[in-house]
Structure formats: structure tokens, C-alpha cells
Specification:
homodimer, two-stranded antiparallel ribbon, elongated, DNA-binding, 6-stranded antiparallel sheet, 10 strands
DNA sequence: CTGTTAATCTGGTATATACCAGAAAACTTT
DNA sequence: AAAGTTTTCTGGTATATACCAGATTAACAG
């Protein structure tokens, strides 16, 4: 029901209803879509970065339907941070890829990827709504192995919230991933913003 | 300044001030202490679970001062979940340890640990405000190796928020950790609730 | 039937106001 | 000087109301 209806039903003001709904949202029980209403949160998908599975694969394995939108793709000059991480010159061309990913038609993840085009010639002409890891394996015989991961729980930036059709300031999980080739070069850098309620990260450490 | 002062200063209502402050809080720029006021968030500590360092060690290595409160300690019967994970009988004695941990006098983490007392006889008589990993190493020659980790970004439960002197519904990071012995027995299960703005998790995966 | 326009519904943001609960400070009393 | 009490200040919760922005739906025109 809408906020106004809930207010009437429970004889409280709309402001109070909103606070209560925002509490439930913080717990991950419900979520909202911008000016469309409140919905029950579906179960979170389990994501194990160390398993090197593609989004499409682990989402469908868990019984959900994945989908990917390509928001932008272009070859662009590397900025300072990317250049430094990839050990290339600032301004050297890299492939930038901006995608939105869905689980059961719900947008849950915005990712921005910076791909080392030197190591993957011709990749900019491939279909990049598909699984990148599959493509790397089939066309370039590259398999993800070593990676550096970083997680922070933080609010979704404004443009990300917009792309996910949620409200600004919504809680999210920020993941940064650096993928290396077998010979320790930086293959790809990935910045992910997840809806906080859409994912649970599980990693096994085996020394 | 207080919410009322800010409202006067910028000629907006207190409700609006609160919303703005809550946005900044979600971004991790500021935080509040229950009925004490709003404060600037100090830098987050970097936590790498795979490095097997103790809280005291990695916090002080990064230039901060760690501190630990023991909120509760008792030998108690294992509940179903714990018993199952530890492969012991439900109701068998385990050591429960409830601690609050500080960085530079700011409470940032509540942890509840369930320790397999069979593998660590006499541990309940040790000083458990100190580093557990140090104790395990010195007294039992146990070193953390394999572990299963799980992360979710979620609101702090009511009692956790209270223990951290913050407001209910505050964003947090929930970490579950299962530590194994060298021979693959479950040594200890750890449930951690972090302030979302106090920690950044970094893991290197090297296959 | 199709495309366009207008009305309606949704949450998002804002005002002003009131009272409560607990932390901190000021003031007593001993 | 120390201990207890009161006051003041803080955020926390709640009311009622208003208008905005965008998504959805209904009505209309061709």
C-alpha cells in the first residue's frame, strides 16, 4: 500500500509512516523504486568473488534470472588512478564499460569497468552485454585468477541511485576489484555499486 | 553545531536539517552519538581478514589506538546453529564471548564469539579482553588459517546500535567468520557488527 | 486502433510545532 | 571537596500540512 494509505490505516501521519518504512528498508526487508512505491525485498544473491564465476552464471545457478544493460562503452584515455594501477601512461587508451545488471528484472548493480586494451586487442568490437569472463576465456584464453578486493558499506552516489531507480542516499555496498593476468599484469579494474539488500558476499580463505 | 543551531543558521527547519545530516551520515562523512551530537567521521580502518592479524595489531599498525570492552563472557550450551556448524551436540558447552571494540575511544564494533571449548581447554580462565589470536598462538599453538567469511551491509540491530551508542537503524556491516583448525575442525564462530563508516575490507585472492 | 494529452497517483522535500529520553552541565547540599 | 539534585541541552519521535517531480493511468482525438 502507499504511504498515505498506511497512514490512514494505522492512524499515524505520513511522516511517521515514512520513518518506519525507512527503518524496514535499512534492514533490507522492503525497498522502494523511485516514485513507484514500496516492494518486498527478494532474497539476496550470494556472491563469491574468489570463485571467478560470471554474474550470469552465479545468478542463474541460484535460481534467478540475470540481465545486463550496457549504459555506455567507449575507448577513452586513462585517468591518473587507472593509469597508475595498470602501470600504463596517463592518457593511454583503455576500454571503459558502464553496465547495469538485473536480478529477476530488478536493477541491483551498477558497474564501471576499465579494461586494459593492450592485453585484449579487438575487445571493443565484441558484444559486451555478455559475460566478460566467458569472452576472456574463449577469445583470449585468459582466466581470472589473482585479484584484489575491497568492500565498503556506503550510500549510493546520486547518479548510481538514479540508474538503480532508487532514492539518493540509499545504502549500498561498494566493491572494487582489480583482476590480474597470470603474469601479474592488471587486466581490468572494476568498480561495483550494489543495492545493499541484493547481495551477500561469501568468501572461503584456504591458505 | 546542534540541529537547532544549524536550522537557525541556514534558515531551514530542524526536520530538513536532520534529513541533510542523515544523508551525510549515510555517506559516512559524519556520525552521531546517541543524544550527544554529530561528529566528523574519522578515517576508516582497513581490515584484511585473510591476513590473520588481531584487531589490536592492525588497528595500531594503522596509527590508531585500539581498546576492548568485555560485555559478557560465559560458558553456555550451544544452540542449534552453533552446534551444527561445530559438529557438536546441541546443548554441549561452548564459550560465549561478547565484546565491544574501540578505535581511538570510538566504539566501532560489536562481536559475539562462540568458541569451541573442547579444542581449547581452560580458555575460559584467561583474560579475554586481550587478543584472542595471540592467546591461541601462545597457549595452544593454534594459528588461524582457513576461514569462511560472509559480509552483508545491513542496519544495526537495536541492541547493537545501543551498545555502539548510535541510533537504531543505523547502517552497518555484518561479518560472519568461521575459523578452522589445521585439521579442519571449527575452532570459533564470530559474528561482527561494524559501524559502516569505520571499516574498509580489503582482501587479496592469490590462487 | 494508435498516438497524444490530461488527470491522478506515487514518493520526495519542505514548513512549523510539540513533547519525550537521555547526556551533560550547573547548582545545591552535605 | 564530594555527592546528590536540578536544569539545560542534545537528538529521537510524533503531529499536521503543503507543494514538487516523475510514473502511471485514463481520457481524448485522429
Amino acid at each position: 500500500p502507499s504511504e498515505r494509505e498506511l497512514g490512514e490505516q494505522f492512524k499515524v501521519s505520513r511522516v511517521t509512516v515514512r520513518q518506519a518504512l525507512q527503518h524496514l528498508e535499512a534492514e533490507g526487508v522492503i525497498y522502494r523504486q523511485n516514485r513507484r512505491g514500496w516492494f518486498v525485498t527478494p532474497p539476496a544473491v550470494i556472491y563469491d568473488p574468489a570463485k571467478h564465476l560470471s554474474f550470469n552464471l552465479y545468478v542463474s545457478k541460484q535460481g534467478y534470472t540475470p540481465h545486463t544493460d550496457k549504459l555506455m562503452q567507449q575507448v577513452e584515455p586513462a585517468n591518473k588512478e587507472i593509469a597508475q594501477l595498470m602501470s600504463i601512461e596517463k592518457g593511454a587508451p583503455i576500454l571503459f564499460l558502464h553496465r547495469r545488471r538485473y536480478i529477476d528484472r530488478r536493477p541491483v548493480l551498477i558497474e564501471k569497468m576499465y579494461i586494459n586494451i593492450d592485453l585484449l586487442p579487438g575487445i571493443e568490437n565484441e558484444d559486451l552485454t555478455q559475460s566478460l569472463s566467458q569472452l576472456l576465456l574463449n577469445k583470449y584464453q585468459h582466466q581470472y585468477r589473482d585479484m584484489d578486493l575491497s568492500f565498503t558499506a556506503t550510500a549510493l552516489p546520486e547518479h548510481v541511485a538514479k540508474d538503480l531507480a532508487t532514492s539518493t542516499g540509499q545504502a549500498g555496498l561498494h566493491v572494487k576489484r582489480i583482476n590480474f593476468t597470470d603474469d601479474k599484469k592488471v587486466l581490468e579494474i572494476d568498480y561495483e555499486f550494489w543495492r545493499h539488500d541484493a547481495v551477500k558476499i561469501e568468501i572461503s580463505i584456504r591458505d
